[in-house]
Amino acid sequence: MAQDALRRANDLLAEYARRRFPSLLENTAPETLLKIVQEVRTRAGTNGFEREDQIATYLDLTLMYGSDFAESDWAKPILANASFVTDDKISALMGQVEANGVKL
Amino acid sequence: MSSGDTGKPKLSWAQVAQKKGDTGAAAGQASAPPPAPAPKAVPVPAPKPPAVAVSGGVVSCANIQARGYPLGFKDKAEFDQAMGELKSALEQEGVKFSAIGVRGSSVTVNSNNPKKKGSYFDKRGKGKSDIDVFFVTTDRLKSAPSKKGIFYDKDMAEQYPAISAWNQKWSAKLKPARKVAVAGFRPFAAMKPSAADSIVSSGAL
Number of residue pairs across A and B with CB atoms under 8 Å? Predict the structure, then answer.
């Protein structure tokens, strides 16, 4: 049952990614996308993001900027800021992206 | 391009830092980080997954039951008011009940309906999911239950004006407005509400 819940959550994230990035993921096989989702879930977890909506944003950023976006100079200071709770971090990350004119 | 999230305003680094009282050198940073560069791909609008945690493979919805009111209500006071008024409506109609409450995806987030696999509360947009309100009764009602022991919401609204008025009032009152409807269940009904998928306001299952 626990594995079912996780599988279902990963399936939903994969569906979400396909809706968000239809062109980018057009030729990505379902099993490859699921592996990406699983990896993103792990990486998001190491940064404290456990809610599905937050992981979805982390997935957005990974697909937009690459799997190492968390180490970039625009994201790392936010993710490393111990005084920010996860909602603050998500909000600040989205603010950094939207400052560049891209709507998240 | 519209947002794929819930529409909360995004805060800049400075705004977040200011909110946290972390002025200037936020958490040891000499200055705010640079804006994000142009992305490789730009997302198209899509609703985000629900704000629930899947910890250790288990979807954590217990917080909704623990907080005591379902999704769709702004707070416990509003939920208690709705349930209090439902209790009055049932009493006004002379319907005895052993429990009243709310069940379904407004409590569990993810739908447990096999016909709605993969669905979750408001997946199709804000206000698109119903609030499934229930009462459990052994009373003889004006309409007969189904073979499965269910008094469907449509029948209840047709036969009991006070329940119909309650449905209408709360369907319009919630923000965003959404369908709120009361159905009845026999205690033996196979699909009766359970502790796992319900918030009981009055009585016991």
Answer: 161
